[in-house]
Specification:
The protein is α+β, with helices and mostly antiparallel strands and 96 residues long. It contains four helices and four strands.
Length: 96
């Protein structure tokens, strides 16, 4: 299932570690603090656990939203939006 990960992390060091977690999870960065990619339930749980271990709950904010393909296809992208094709598994496999 497609998954959005969005965050507002106060400390650079923690934010950089979360970036590494998202990269390792294989999701695509669509904005500085917004990621999107295919993740199954186990992968989302693993990422959640990694992020929970890093953040300071009293000052940081993290959102992990699963989204079905139908809802994603109805999203409206304006301006310099990301390329939808980069979110598919087939294209990501070509880039690796």
């Amino acid at each position: 299932m497609l998954t959005w990960v969005m965050y507002d992390i106060v400390q650079d060091k923690i934010r950089n570690k979360i970036v590494k977690c998202c990269e390792k999870a294989g999701i695509y960065r669509v904005q500085y603090s917004v990621w999107l990619g295919e993740m199954n339930k186990t992968q989302r749980k693993e990422l959640r656990t990694q992020i929970e271990d890093l953040i300071k709950p009293d000052e940081d904010k993290v959102y992990i939203f699963p989204m079905c393909r139908e809802d994603f296809n109805s999203c409206i992208l304006l301006g310099q939006a990301f390329d939808r094709d980069l979110v598919t598994d087939e294209v990501k496999a070509l880039l690796l």
